[in-house]
Amino acid sequence: MLSLRRGSVTAVTERHDRLVRLEVEGRPCVAYPGLTGPVALGDDVLVNIQAVELGLGSGGFDVLYANLTRGLGLEGEPGAHVMKLPYTPLQHAVRHAEENGGTLQSLSGLPIICCSLHSQVAPAAAGLGEGMRVAYVQVPGGALPVSFSDTVRALRERGLVEATVAVGACIEGDVACVSTASAFVWAAERKFDAVLCSIGPGIVGTASPWGHGGLSVAEAVLTSRSLGGRPVLAVRYSEGDPRERHHGLSHHTQAVLAVAGDVEVGWPNGLAVPDGLGGVTAVDVSGWEEACAGLPLSHMGRGPDDDPWFFAAAYAAGRVASGHVA
Q: Domain 4-67 maps to which CATH number in 2.30.170, 3.30.40, 2.40.50, 3.30.310?
């Protein structure tokens, strides 16, 4: 069941395109004005409090569910009829790219970096480098709103990402696509140099090796390969994570490889290849810290000084993919 609470907006702390950070009765909250309408100080609102009540580390804030002051009677997107979050209390129609057709049958070697963790996105983008047209494709597995990501916002400001695509249940991208395949085709048709594919922030995890959000990236690998793209996997590798399942080669990466099969893996030259990874494409990652300077680099509270190989491995995937750009 939904856990809803009624209250008043007591502070508005940040406003970004498609995302507002605020407080409701003094508690942190996020709002998506493209979904629930504009929000202002004093508004009477309903917020979903369940993540906070459960003590989820990645959900330490409430989410605005409805704005009773200025969010009622809003009109949907003109001409849209394909629903996001269909048959749920949050269903809403959005124009999808597939409605305009799309006849491309091959990705013609389009490089696609596949990240199973959102904190890999910034170093992978830095590895691709500047001066390229890059589309960011978000698939379900973590946060669904693309607009929630401060990382994607920073990459756009720096010119490392040009456009964003929300796939399936994901929302709030520049473009919406029903499927991962359509998202890749959309990018190829518009002559993007590369695609950066990832789940959103806040990965879903369970006690099962197969029950985690990063596994959705296996579909991206398989889809890219089937359509003639060049998938490159960003490996989740850490020497700073105290958890055995994530120390060294993460079991998340092992699960993706088990499902997706052979895929090119970018790997930092000079770092020993762990058991279970097989063949890799090793690249020089010297200078990765300078390339990532100014970008948000954080993984489970650890930065580049605490866990350098985590970020260097993602950067390596970007370097490998950059070598495939036509």
A: 2.40.50
